[in-house]
Amino acid sequence: MRILFLNILIRVNHFAKEFVKRDIGTVKMSSKKTSITVADVARAAKVSKATAARVLGGYGVASEKTRNAVTEAAEKLGYRSNELARSMSTGRTGLIGVVVGDIENAFFSRAVRGISDAANAAGLNLIITNSNEDLEQEREMVAVLMRQRVAGMIVAPTDVRDTVHLEAAISSGTPVVTFDRVADHLVADSVCGDDAAAADQVMRHLHDLGHQNVAYVTAAGFQGGRLSDLDEIGITAVRNRIAAFLTASERAGIEDPMGLVFQNVIGEESAQDIVAAILAHEPAITAVLASDSLIGASLYKAFKERGVRFPSDLSFVSWFDADWTKVTAPQISVVDQPTYEFGQKAMQCLIGRINGDSSKIEHILIPTPMIARGSIGPRETCGD
Amino acid sequence: MRILFLNILIRVNHFAKEFVKRDIGTVKMSSKKTSITVADVARAAKVSKATAARVLGGYGVASEKTRNAVTEAAEKLGYRSNELARSMSTGRTGLIGVVVGDIENAFFSRAVRGISDAANAAGLNLIITNSNEDLEQEREMVAVLMRQRVAGMIVAPTDVRDTVHLEAAISSGTPVVTFDRVADHLVADSVCGDDAAAADQVMRHLHDLGHQNVAYVTAAGFQGGRLSDLDEIGITAVRNRIAAFLTASERAGIEDPMGLVFQNVIGEESAQDIVAAILAHEPAITAVLASDSLIGASLYKAFKERGVRFPSDLSFVSWFDADWTKVTAPQISVVDQPTYEFGQKAMQCLIGRINGDSSKIEHILIPTPMIARGSIGPRETCGD
DNA sequence: TCAGTTATTGAGACCGGTCTCAATGCGTAT
DNA sequence: ATACGCATTGAGACCGGTCTCAATAACTGA
Lengths: 384, 384
What we know:
Chain A is of the alpha/beta class. The first copy, chain A, has 13 helices and twelve strands. In chain A, 46% of the residues lie in helices and 13% in strands.
């Protein structure tokens, strides 16, 4: 009788426990309805969490029967993997950090498109950040990306003379590839246009057309408002162009080539000032090189406003084949920077590094040929 | 003797196990050297992990003495927080997913800049993806973003007639804001230009100038190569423009307004075909509206190649005030879409939703006024 | 059928942080 | 000195997945 009672009590207790367990399970599932886990799928498929994870994560082995059961349960439950959890476990994220000057600048947005396409093809995704060509902001963005534990970073460094933050990232095991600019001392691959060759080519072309006084216009600002030392320039792309420009100007007999470098052109107001200075220059400047397409567009508009005719009054070349260079009359001659390819190459390098490639650091130079259009003409037609 | 031998064997085995364990521990610490954890900092500061986390995570309370000790240890060790772990715990990431048609299109890159600036100001970062205005790719990108557990998404939907994937995201608790396009049935805020009003304004202006046969050129493709039903258009921005265009054309006495909608202009080749068709149109088409700046640039170039003069032969208006519209001669009249503001507004809406705002869904309409420039002129100067 | 080998599965620890609540410490009043 | 209330701290569970290795199952050959 006593034994029978105890037996009944044990059964009731067992039933109550099963009831509570089921109830808790129901509540849990209800509140977590929006996020099904591997454990949920495993329960539904009547396998262990580890087995379900193997199937859903696509690693290890599982029998076909098990695989089907898990797959079906996952579909039925609407399982969606959690990359955060996966990344925590594996120590690897599928995220790539990108630091550009300004995503709105077509030069960078096209490069980002190239990076993005190559990344997506490799199952990776981009976190895009803007440095605004400001070192402090670049540092902050790199820190943000490091906290996100990006698998690697592609950076257009604002100033190659101060890359401590990039060195720290690299030391932490995060591979870095720079694009458009190269820091020689950094243990990072780089992908850049051949700026020196391009500047040289443009200058030769202009000299062949009889030009001697050629101006170079840049956004970079110099101490005392005038270039006196190339080391002032933290963006290697710009430095290389100007170095080649100076060499070529000397070759053409210019005694003070640095005096032909016009600085600090950021936006249309400063372009107006520079255009006034160029038009007032003695001896007359008969050709202008714009360091990038933003500057190019501002200068072009300012010159047109003053009634300058291309190429009869002034020959004009801009870096980067932006959309606007092809609707002007005449069309603008450009240094064609294939930034989509820059981006693709940079991403390919980075994927190699992420996958453990420890071969020698590469500095990839991509040709950036001049496209001569109607904005360049012989000096004799340039009025004197 | 046998017992002695077994005893020695057991001791050797034990020693070997301890040796291997020590060796593994050393290797492990060495490989983890680059990632200092809260536990490491806690150890160095002689507090518990929970306390160190409180200080480093900036939540809870800690004495000043403790705070200083932890902060100092963290600096000395070079602690860098792990957002993955934090997000796992908190159930919240600081990532925002963005799906645009093509980051390279200035319309989107400027919007993304607006989104990015607003996000960064709120301590958030963007994962940018491209849909290429393809529904399948959009679905895939949304899935990728959901797997990353983004805190919310800003999407320019490719087709508002099929938004199951967005509905699923919203049901999962991930707020969505659409921009440029609106899906009425979606429980999502939207930020768009007032396309109907803009089209109406442009048409009124053209009619006031005497134009009657005005063409609208779009990238959208229609069944049978001709627009017959507005519901064919999955992008609401385009649909609204065309609807207003048709209404205004009818008002101006056009009997078959749909015949003035030219479709499927993607790239410069198709632009050539469309330009030929427009120039051959009877009665003569005296004004053209380009649905976006990519189409606009292609059309402009094709017309110029055929010697068309603006505005004497043809008046021309393009949606979006792209850079190229301001260097043509004459400058192009545009519908100014302030996409930077679109992006900012969208991000603000999304931040509200992420923070728990459950107020009524908002559809924000931003004015997109016409900027009349030299490409528009009276019909009488347009040759007949 | 039994033994040996290979394939599959499950238990439990772990990633690096957050969160909860009980334990401990500190300050104040009697 | 003792009691009470408040502030601070620590222990341990947990987030959702991966990884390791022992246990179990399945297969094959004698």
